[in-house]
């Protein structure tokens, strides 16, 4: 049986796509921070505890990158994605701490075919990443370009 | 001589803070993609050439993470930053290809003290990341919380 593949036509308004889950380790938090965001609360447990974040906490850019992988594994790898022009907004609502398990979902907000690029449509998503307590740690909206199934079939 | 430190009061509207420069290597593009965004155009030169990106290209989340480090090294590490609640928007305008050298700037758009957190103000920045051809590869806005110098001096 072939895996289901998602084309533009499958992204109906309101449809929900689960993200893969992700255990966040101290080692990963520190490794990412050392390369991209070496602020003390992302590098050191004691500095994290002393900060308003309350513990060794992932850089917001690390959380965003982990979200990307959770989305890829959850559904994007099986879609006709052609990439994204950007992020409409992204909010870091709660600290992501070492030992947290993240999960979440992408919800279709709206979609429209692109006049400028025949065969491609733009799908706008609300993404929500939660921790194991059900608290939203990060949320944001971004549009992703998707090939139309119709275009795929005409090309075949 | 002590390095200059930037407090809330130093972020006057229109003031420009240069980002550090960054050479983007193929190895780094592939390493980030393998962990966070394993789409073919971020993992493989031939797949990148075949895509609309025109070459082995960094994940947009990688560019955002590199930007964070360029900001840290450029000026944020010498500021009174207390972190950020999120991103207002982020646009990926041009592919970031292996061999590109990135530079850029953060420009203060506006600032205001926070009523809810005495001693802290919110500074909104426009961030621009350019390649070696002077093309804007990524741009976005985000607010960063900064301690007031006044609060620092009262506490001392």
Question: Your description of this structure?
Answer:
The structure is a homodimer of 156-residue chains. Chain A has 156 residues and is of the alpha+beta class. Chain A has one domain: Thiol Ester Dehydrase, Chain A (Roll), CATH 3.10.129.10. Chain A has helices at residues 26-36, 40-43, 45-50, 60-74, 149-155, and strands spanning 16-18, 22-23, 86-87, 89-92, 101-113, 120-130, 136-147. In chain A, strands 1, 2, 4, 5, 6 and 7 form a 6-stranded antiparallel β-sheet that branches. In chain A, a hairpin with a 6-residue loop joins strand 5 (101-113) and strand 6 (120-130). The longest helix of chain A has 15 residues, at 60-74. The A-B interface holds A 32, 35-39, 41, 52-53, 59-62, 64-66, 68-69, 72, 77, 81-92, 140 and B 32, 35-39, 52-53, 59-62, 64-66, 68-69, 72, 77, 81-92, 140.
């Amino acid at each position: 049986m072939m895996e289901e593949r998602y084309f533009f036509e499958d992204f109906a308004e309101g449809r929900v796509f689960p993200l893969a889950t992700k255990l966040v380790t101290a080692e990963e938090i520190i490794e990412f921070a050392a390369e991209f965001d070496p602020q003390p609360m992302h590098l050191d447990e004691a500095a994290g505890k002393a900060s308003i974040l309350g513990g060794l906490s992932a850089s917001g850019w690390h959380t965003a990158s982990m979200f990307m992988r959770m989305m890829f594994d959850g559904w994007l790898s099986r879609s006709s994605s052609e990439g994204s022009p950007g992020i409409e907004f992204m909010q870091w609502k709660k600290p992501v701490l070492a030992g947290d398990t993240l999960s979440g979902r992408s919800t279709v907000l709206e979609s429209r075919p692109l006049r400028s690029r025949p065969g491609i449509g733009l799908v706008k998503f609300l993404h929500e990443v939660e921790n194991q307590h059900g608290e939203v740690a990060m949320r944001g909206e971004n549009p992703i370009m998707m090939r139309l199934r119709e275009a795929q079939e005409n090309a075949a």
